[in-house]
Amino acid sequence: MKAARIHKTLLAAFAIAISASAMADNLDLPQLDPKTPCAKPDYPRASLANEEQGTTVVSVLVGPDGTVSDSRIDKSSGFHNLDKATLKLAQCKFKPVLTDGKAQPSWVSLEYEWKLE
Known about the structure:
By secondary structure, the chain is α+β, with helices and mostly antiparallel strands. 22% of the residues lie in helices and 34% in strands.
């Protein structure tokens, strides 16, 4: 793959879809903290070279402090390197769920699409 194509591919690869249907306006799920940027995972070099694409669904356990204390792959993209890279979303900061004004640990699903263009 030529350097220019790799650069274009890297720019197009970051289509993050964080469970739009699950996250939008649902107060029963943790929300991404808008004050803290969430770094997008880097496209693995081997996956770029092999032109791998797919969607990975990850569940993360958000603690009362908004950090992720556990994560797991719920649906594989079909490619180990892409799935492993998706787990980096566990470094994102969230606004935890509140019950009676008290933050509670809770799980939320994140969907990440790996796409080459």
